[in-house]
Every structure is written in structure tokens, then in C-alpha cells.
């Protein structure tokens, strides 16, 4: 119970400390919606905090059946996972804002998404004498290698590095979110148990008696996790070295523009994928304000 309380308090503290643009981005990207442009709610954490308050009031079951105690413990873990992931996503968005304010990097936060402007290629080709080599680029992203002495304008190379850091941050946060929910979905710690959860699996919410559809959530989570498999460690290394292998003003300019476009649409694409899952939940009779909806959108 203490871990749950700490997670809930940290979540609300993070929310109160978040600036309006972060709150708006959180609601757009990490709370349930069925289409773009839906009106924002005054308190996007209301559903979660309502469950938190009821769980705190209900407390931990001690004198009840084994199943009810198990359901209570399972739900407590679910709420802790949700609260921790809300905090994670808020911190992620705050970091995005920091990168924009500090380095003018366009990030997926309203008011901080102004696109880069690029000099003409001819100008970049003239500004290479004091530029960076591929080896410097790879070193800046934590790798080694990079043959050749070709240099690229330092400001352009820095833009690419900053954009890549935004992508890496989001990839890391997706993995941390997955880890947080594994405590709920895979309490045994076995990697393959997620797929083994029956689609009909559920636990009883202790304070309401309603069912949380664990199986439906696990099935949707497995698909989301599967879609993020392209962001593996090897995929990142391959991407970095391909950029280094084409280390010319033209090659780096193209890579930077492509990375900026990927960053701009990555979270939107993920949100559309989650909306498909939400539509499936609705068809299964799960209400839009069900806790499973909020949990899914945090992944």
C-alpha cells in the first residue's frame, strides 16, 4: 500500500508542477480519445484519481477469501503501474520542452513544435572546414567507428543529434512504461506470460465489484509492444551507422529532415494505433470511461 500511495502522490505532484503546454500534450497523446480535435477536459486525471481515492478508502483486504485478496493486490499493482506511468509521461514531455527551450529542437508539445529551418545545400557544402566528421557523430551518440575525413557543418550535425536524442528518449520511455505494467501483467517476471494470459481473464475491482478486463488489456498491450519492436537496440545502431556511412552535407541534411518528420508524426501514429484498440474495447462493451481505456493510452 505504501508503494501505491507514493506513486499516486508523485503523479499528482508531477501534474501540478507541469506547465500548461505539457498538460495539453499529455491529454492529447496519453489519454483516451477517438479522433483528433476532441475538446480537452478540465481534469484528464479525474478517472485515475477517482480510482486512487476509492482504493485508499477501501484499503487492503485482510479478512476475506484468497481470491478477493488476490484481486485486491492485483488491482493495487495496476493502479500503482498507472500512476507511475503518468509521472513518466509527464517527465518525458517536460524533457521535450527543455530540449526545445535549450536547443530549439522541435518536439511534439503545443507551442514547442516549430519546425527547423535549413540553409540551402550549396551553403552547407561551403561550411565544412570547421565541421564534424562521422567519427565525432558516432561518438556523440555513444558509438564508435566512422571512416573518412569528410566533414559536415557543425550546426546541421547538432540538429540531427538533438532530433535523435528526442527519438531515443521516447523509445526509452516506451520501454519503461512497458516495464511498469509488467509488474501487473507479468508478476512472475517471465517474458512469455503476456501472450499466455487468456483473453477472458479479469479481476474484480475491490471497491466497486466491477471487473477489470485484464485479458483484453493484455491483448492490446501485446500488440502495442509488438509495434514498438522496430525501436530495438540493433535498429538504432544500424540507423546511426547508415547515417555515418553517408556522411556528406547532402546525406546529413536528408537524414535530419527525415528524422524531424519521424519525430513529428511518431507519437500521433502511436495514438492512432491506440484508438484502434479503444474502438475494439467499445465493441466489446467496455465503457469509454473504464480504467482499462486510461491504462492503454499510457503505453
TrEMBL record:
Superkingdom: Eukaryota
Keywords for the protein's UniProt record, in alphabetical order: Coiled coil
Keyword match Coiled coil: yes
Coiled coil (UniProt feature): 250-277
Name used for this protein in its record: Uncharacterized protein
Amino acid at each position: 500500500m505504501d508503494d501505491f500511495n507514493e506513486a499516486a502522490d508523485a503523479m499528482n505532484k508531477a501534474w501540478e508542477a507541469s506547465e500548461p503546454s505539457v498538460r495539453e500534450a499529455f491529454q492529447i497523446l496519453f489519454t483516451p480519445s477517438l479522433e483528433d480535435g476532441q475538446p480537452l477536459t478540465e481534469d484528464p486525471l479525474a478517472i485515475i484519481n477517482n480510482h486512487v481515492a476509492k482504493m485508499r478508502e477501501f484499503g487492503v483486504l485482510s479478512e476475506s477469501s484468497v481470491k478477493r485478496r488476490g484481486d485486491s493486490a492485483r488491482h493495487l499493482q495496476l493502479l500503482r503501474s498507472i500512476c507511475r506511468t503518468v509521472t513518466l509521461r509527464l517527465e518525458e514531455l517536460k524533457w521535450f520542452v527543455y530540449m526545445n527551450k535549450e536547443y530549439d529542437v522541435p518536439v511534439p508539445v503545443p507551442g514547442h513544435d516549430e519546425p527547423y529551418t535549413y540553409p540551402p545545400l550549396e551553403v552547407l557544402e561551403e561550411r565544412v572546414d570547421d565541421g564534424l566528421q562521422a567519427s565525432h557523430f558516432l561518438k556523440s551518440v555513444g558509438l564508435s567507428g566512422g571512416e573518412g575525413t569528410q566533414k559536415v557543418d557543425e550546426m546541421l550535425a547538432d540538429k540531427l543529434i538533438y532530433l535523435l536524442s528526442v527519438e531515443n528518449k521516447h523509445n526509452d520511455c516506451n520501454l519503461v512504461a512497458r516495464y511498469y505494467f509488467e509488474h501487473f501483467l507479468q508478476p512472475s517476471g517471465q517474458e512469455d506470460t503476456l501472450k499466455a494470459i487468456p483473453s477472458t481473464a479479469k479481476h474484480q475491482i475491490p471497491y466497486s465489484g466491477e471487473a477489470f478486463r485484464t485479458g483484453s488489456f493484455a491483448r492490446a498491450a501485446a500488440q502495442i509492444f509488438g509495434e514498438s519492436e522496430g525501436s530495438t537496440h540493433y535498429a538504432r545502431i544500424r540507423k546511426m551507422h547508415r547515417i555515418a556511412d553517408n556522411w556528406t552535407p547532402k546525406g546529413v541534411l536528408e537524414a535530419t529532415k527525415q528524422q524531424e518528420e519521424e519525430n513529428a508524426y511518431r507519437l500521433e501514429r502511436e495514438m492512432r494505433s491506440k484508438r484502434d484498440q479503444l474502438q475494439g474495447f467499445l465493441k466489446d462493451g467496455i465503457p469509454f470511461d473504464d480504467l482499462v481505456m486510461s491504462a492503454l493510452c499510457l503505453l
